[in-house]
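Bench log. Compound arrived from synthesis this morning; before running ITC I wanted a structural hypothesis for how NAP sits in the protein. Inputs:
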Amino acid sequence: MGYKVVVAGATGNVGREMLNILAEREFPVDEIVALASRKSLGTEVSFGDKTLKTKDLDTFDFTGWDIALFAVGSDATKIYAPKAAAAGCVVIDNSSLYRYDPEIPLVVPEVNPEAVEQYKKRNIIANPNCSTAQMVVALKPLHDRAKIKRVVVSTYQSVSGAGKAGIDELWDQTKGMYVPGQEVAPKKFSKQIAFNVIPHIDVFLDSGETKEEWKMVAETKKILDKSIKVTATCVRVPVFVGHSEAINIEFEEFLDEDEARDILREAPGVMVVDKREPGGYITPIEAVGEYATYVSRIRQDSTIENGLNLWCVSDNLRKGAALNAVQIAETLGNRCLKKG
Ligand SMILES: NC(=O)c1ccc[n+]([C@@H]2O[C@H](COP(=O)([O-])OP(=O)(O)OC[C@H]3O[C@@H](n4cnc5c(N)ncnc54)[C@H](OP(=O)(O)O)[C@@H]3O)[C@@H](O)[C@H]2O)c1
C-alpha cells in the first residue's frame, strides 16, 4: 500500500534526480508517472531498475493521484500546479512561484517539518531555493543553541542550478576554448562562465541586490526565524554540480567553535568534515550524489563579539531540490496523508 506519484519535469536535472531519489529511498509508490513537455513525449527516464516513458503534462489528468513533485519552472507551474491541486493531488513544487505566499508552507524537513501540515489550505507545498535549503540545515542547530542575529553569506553556485542549458553552456564553452572556430558565446549566462565567475544570478532588483540574493533573505526568514537578518552575494562558478557557501554568523550568545562543531556533528542532515590540514574540508565535487549538507572550516570570527565562520557545501540537485522535495513527501506521508 503506497501512493500514486507524479513527477512533472522528469526529463530535467531536478526531475531525473527526483526519480532516482524516490527509488533509492524506497518511497512507497503504488504507481508512478513521468511527465514533461509535449516535445519529450515517449522519452525514456529511469526509475530504479525500471524505465518510464514520459507523458505530456498538458493533457495529463491528475484525478486519483496522491502526490505530484513538480520541477518545470514557474511559467509551467502557474498553469499546471493549480490543476493538480484542484484535482486533489498534493503538489510539492520546486519553482519559486509559491514560496512567498503566506498560505503556502515552505519546508525544509530538518528545520520546520511541522509546516507541512499547512498544505491543506491550497494543496501545495513549496520547496526552497537550493542555496537557502543547505544554509538553513546548517544554521538551525546553531540558532537553537545561541540565537542567530545576522548572517553574511557569499555563494559559489554551480551551473546545474540554471538547468540543463546551464550545464550545456559550461561544457560547450570549455571545449570551445581549445578548438579554433568552435568558440561559444554566452547565452544562458550573462558573461563567459568557462574559467570565470559571475556575480549575478536571476534578475536585478531596484535595491541593487539580485532576486537570488533576495530569495535567500526572504526564505531564511520564512523557514527558520523572521528576526534573523541576512545579507547575501550570489555568484555563479564554473562547477557542474554542488553549491558552496562561505557563511559568517553573528549570535546573541557566545558559541565556542568546538561546541559548534559538536552541535553540527549531531544535527540531522549535516556531515562535519573539518580537519585543519590540507584537504581536511569538503569541496563540491565530493558532495555530488550525496544527501548530506557538509560543513567545514568552522572557526571563531574574532572581529565581532559572538561570531563564527563556516564553509557549507551540498549537492544542489539533491538537498537543494530533489532530495528536499522527496523528504517533504515522506514527511507528508508520515504526518498527514493516508496510503492507498
Ligand atoms: N537545478 C537546481 O539546482 C534547482 C534547485 C532548486 C529548484 N530548481 C527549480 O526546479 C525547476 C526545474 O529545474 P531544472 O534544473 O530541472 O530545469 P531543466 O533541467 O531545464 O528541466 C526543466 C523540466 O521542465 C520541463 N518543462 C519545462 N516547461 C514545460 C512545460 N511548459 N510543460 C511541461 N514540461 C515543461 C522540461 O521538459 P522538456 O525536457 O520536455 O522541455 C524539463 O523536464 C525550476 O523551477 C528550477 O528553478 C532547480
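What the model suggests: The chain has a mean pLDDT of 97. The CA atoms of residues 107 and 114 lie 9 Å apart.
ITC booked for Thursday regardless.
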